[in-house]
Amino acid sequence: MIMKDSFHCYHQQNYNYQLQISNRIKIAVQDLGTSCIDLVKDAGNLQVNPTDGFSKRELQEHARKVTERVCLKPSLDVGSILLLY
After folding, report:
1. First to last CA, the chain
2. Spans in the chain with pLDDT lower than 50
């Protein structure tokens, strides 16, 4: 009985851990997608008005955000996911 209960408890904890990891990966991918959308919008704005300094700064800022989020993705493995949050 004790062994059966501990086995069930272990699997429940493992399942909760997997849910946490999948949710964190999902959020990271959604953030990356949002940053990519912003980058494409800024590129379109800059293409329409190439001399606009504000559009250039926005494009640079969103390009930096995309780069940061892409560099974060390889660190989203099982061992380091808990260090991120």
Report:
1. 36
2. 78, 81-85
Q: Which of 24, 17, 22, 58 is nearest to 40 (CA)?
A: 58
Cα gap 76→67, rounded to integer Å: 15
List the domain boundaries for the chain.
2-73
pLDDT at position 85 is 43
Amino acid at the residue 24: R
Select 2-73's CATH number: 1.10.10, 1.10.760, 2.60.40, 1.10.287.
1.10.287
Kindly state the tokens that stand for 49: 């008005």
Digit-coded pLDDT (tens) for 40-63: 999 999 999 999 999 999 999 999
